[in-house]
Batch of 2 targets.
Target 1
Amino acid sequence: MLVNNPVIPAFIPPKRTLMGPGPSDVPQRILDAMQRPTIGHLDPAFQEMMEQIKSLLRYAFQTNNSLTFPVSAPGSAGMEMCFVNLVEPGDKVLICINGVFGNRMLENVKRCGGVPVVVEDDWGKPVSIAKVEQALRDNAGIKVLAFVHAETSTGAQSDARSLAALAQKHGAFTIMDCVTSLGGTPVLIDEWGIDAAYSGSQKCLSCTPGLSPVTFSDRAIAKVKSRKMPVQSWFLDLNLVLGYWQSSGKRTYHHTAPINPLYGLHEALVILSEEGLESAWSRHRAMHEQLKTGLESLGLTFVVEASARLPQLNSIWIPDAVDDAAARGKLLSEFNLEIGAGLGALAGKVWRIGLMGYSARQHNVDFCLKAIRRVLHK
Amino acid sequence: MLVNNPVIPAFIPPKRTLMGPGPSDVPQRILDAMQRPTIGHLDPAFQEMMEQIKSLLRYAFQTNNSLTFPVSAPGSAGMEMCFVNLVEPGDKVLICINGVFGNRMLENVKRCGGVPVVVEDDWGKPVSIAKVEQALRDNAGIKVLAFVHAETSTGAQSDARSLAALAQKHGAFTIMDCVTSLGGTPVLIDEWGIDAAYSGSQKCLSCTPGLSPVTFSDRAIAKVKSRKMPVQSWFLDLNLVLGYWQSSGKRTYHHTAPINPLYGLHEALVILSEEGLESAWSRHRAMHEQLKTGLESLGLTFVVEASARLPQLNSIWIPDAVDDAAARGKLLSEFNLEIGAGLGALAGKVWRIGLMGYSARQHNVDFCLKAIRRVLHK
């Protein structure tokens, strides 16, 4: 043989406490679900489970949208699915940028041949409603308004209800990134009137990474169906994906669904449904309050002002005297604790402490505060 | 709440024997790996595992290509990654179509703005080398030759070595679909001189579905890096993905990798490396010979002529008197045995019996023959 077989043993990962920007700690129930026997993607038993996932996701998103399902790929693919389907070449798209993921939206719009109009806010601030209102007035014919509800790179939450209302007033569709908010803070798709939204499995749903729950309004589907140009992605073309995830009639094979990861997502959503959204939101809020008190008692300060602060993602300034990489390395090697580094403009300047899903619990808050205190020698 | 929480219990799948076109039976070792503790996608321990996966995949593909890794999505996304990166608008692409997946390649080329030139062969036949040679002569300036090594819709294997040699002679790049061949019959990327190839986790690797191993030659990477137009997909842009999967220096966050599914793929590749490729190929061949003898003794006949027949995917004509759906339904409900239906032009006419990976073993062959005998009342 040209290339010989490498001798590599089974991989046994260390047991970490995950308090970065995701993945979050995964409950044993979900890990147990992941290892159940694999069945076929067209098996009647599997199709019944698909219907349950759709129903559980409608609850999580608070929507009656029939087209609500998990994309067979991570959140970035969920984002791309929204843009490639809803944006046609030449469409004017208003993008709100206040962190890494707004920039990624801009990249998506460009690659779809859309014409971007950008409203920028400082990293760590929420999207300015006034600026968006002005931009909608200044730029006639905006087809889509796109914004990030919960910026994972900063921990700022924007006012999705007001942004969606502005879009409706100006006849634009809305695309919302709720990767970090779904399950942690209210995401009210129907009440707000959002047309397309995408999330991730590994944040406040506490599932393993790799799936992106999405939801599309009926008018979004109508827009996709009436496109002049075909969707540029075959894998993400809703017209084709519909044939596999649609609820009525015979399912058509599109691609092979990731069976076992979907078992995991199903269990994550069952857990959320058992707890109830309001309880999950309160728990994230309560754990955040405790963490905040503890961090402030260590002299640490928050990047985001209190009114826009996400309970599930706590960005704090790294104290001047502290070596970022060395401190995070110590947390990992001595405490098996993962917290997040800064991204983009905030790299080296902030830490991002996640309290997402199963990580938003008393044990984690206490453990994290203890570990950070030790590393900062307080 | 607008939408109430549905009361849905945990999903306990039935235990099936998977002998369709994939997913194949997943060994317990792989399922066990899937439920190990989730760690972060930038964790040093995870990055070490990524390097091992790359090394194990190089063995499976028989290549020294440095860019050899699993795409975080199913095989259809692996296909799309090859086309969106290697095809630029206006590029002439020769597509060989002899089943469903050649047609999917054609869809991809159109959506990339490529100019397709099609060579068609009957479903069930291998790609005609003579026709491809003629098409390369008749159409000057073909940039890429694309073909399916092992057509999952029919069970026909094409002569990849000769096709790649023709592409090289005419200065074209090659894209090869080896979704169903990798691990089951020889796939010799470097020896044949293939520039880009994609596979799937759930066929002869016997992992759960959802990941697509890919490999790119250095000259393919050079072509991607020198593109005039940006790659139309952000999620699949190799220029960006390289930053996360490249081996040297600091890894850059691109998207969150599907951690636990990658544990599963790692274990699947360790198993393949332990067995050795030659042994795996022989085992697939031996199990196929037994199945063939048994099926023929039941009066069943093969769709594909012996010389082009894939051992791991056995397409047989459904006897006239037999109701396709009823018979497959009975296999599933009475024997918990899944076999594959016909796709596209062969729907209702053929069954596809998979002997892939862990499903290519004595127990499965005996069990499948017994079940089919009962259902056919022989």
Target 2
Amino acid sequence: MTHSPLPMRVPAAGLPPRVRIHEVGPRDGLQNEKAIVPTDVKADFVCRLANAGLSTVEVTSFVHPKWVPQLADAGEVCLRLDDLPAGVRLPVLVPNIRGLERATAHGARRVAIAASATETFARRNLNRTLDESLAMSAEVVAQAKGQGMHVRGYLSMCFGDPWEGPVPLEQVVRTARALADMGCDELSLGDTIGVATPGHVSALLDALAADGLGADRLGVHFHDTYGQALANTLAALQHGVTTVDASAGGLGGCPFAGSATGNLATEDLVWMLQGLGVETGVDLDALVATSVWMAERLGRPSPSRTVTALARKE
Amino acid sequence: MTHSPLPMRVPAAGLPPRVRIHEVGPRDGLQNEKAIVPTDVKADFVCRLANAGLSTVEVTSFVHPKWVPQLADAGEVCLRLDDLPAGVRLPVLVPNIRGLERATAHGARRVAIAASATETFARRNLNRTLDESLAMSAEVVAQAKGQGMHVRGYLSMCFGDPWEGPVPLEQVVRTARALADMGCDELSLGDTIGVATPGHVSALLDALAADGLGADRLGVHFHDTYGQALANTLAALQHGVTTVDASAGGLGGCPFAGSATGNLATEDLVWMLQGLGVETGVDLDALVATSVWMAERLGRPSPSRTVTALARKE
């Protein structure tokens, strides 16, 4: 009989003792999957993830259904969440004031807004200039903070932009500073097209720290387009970052079907952190079982290496 | 028009200026693929890799065809290599004296031997006790060194063993020391089942250095079974390692077809090193084109994230 596959626990110097994983599978994952998942399955997915030990699960996005039909049932999903462990954080994405109002009406206490570090992505994705989109975000943040909500700010295209190419550090610092100044409690630095490498991650974190934005206020959000997500995460941990975004099963883009935009798989992250002796509170077996269950519902295997390896052993 | 996808070059502190990639696709990759590739395609593959700038390409293994029918034409492949750039290194694996004799007869000037860090793998894979297998390796190394050859020693199961579980550091140091003492010019530390995490890599390199085996004599050989290969490579680079094994296109185990034993993909490694400003001499476009060409011959897509992403843009 072969030995149970778990990494040997060997802590490394200079890493944080604990990391909070911000699970984005139900929102960032499912919004980028072609399949439209039934509402009950979505709610069940969120609850299973929370019960696998993920302390923060981003539930959905209150975006207009015209833009993201996959998440048209955002309100219904929020109302069907039950069997949740105590203290779990359940943020939702709100693209604008209308989204914030819908989120509030459905009981959300934590919201996330999305902004771009580049002019071109702001124009293409949000149909506004960068400054206009930041002004709109400021309005949403002010209203959410006025209601006593916790606000996360996603900053897209922090490393590269498909139209502009590499993004200068100072441009990212400027937009991150704008999000912080408008009241975001936490920023998530997105490598939306997956081009970052570890030195670039270190340099950006240094530049942000020099502007007063320390690791305690930052999360990192890497995509595995070029296979760099986990190495980039290691670089971020070495800089003191303790919030890492990941998507259960690597949901959100299937790297072997003509689309290579997947999020970092939560399981691959948990494997590394377990080996490093960094606490996450996550039960890896329960998480893998959840991703296998969701992959069956999506009708295709998970792109996560760890899910693939562990599911095979079951 | 979107921007040409290349990582922004941002060097990180404490990394070597140059890394030598030891390309194992034609040997370690093809020996683990189900398909039997025609001899001409194998020879062409080696030449294309060398012309893409890989300075070391492991050509084949002179193992008995009964065990690895995929490489039964090892001698023929060596004889058909032409159109090679000057100075390229072309090692071959030799499992025993008979293999060494065949390799010599076919013009090999560099050989590699394979040993195990664990008793169980030695017995299962080599049908000998660990000490017996080391004694056999010593004989091969002595004869190869007597012929003036460069000898690389592969050490398997340096982190975990499917039967024994986690492998104690001192056991790896003991077997690595034995390989060094018998005359191996270079050792390749293999994470054969892909369970290693970065702290474990650091700890092993520290333990080896304490025994006098410094990074200048070591290479690392990671498998991406749990998605850890590139993060582990980063940890090794931070410890001064400058020889990294990788397999073009991630050949050697397809992570989405019930087997998750693939090697680190050379393209994913090159992407990270380019971003870090670490010289490799590799032309990434030529390498990706080679892996796409080989994937067509194998009749399935490459598991490399970088190949998938860049091939999609062509």
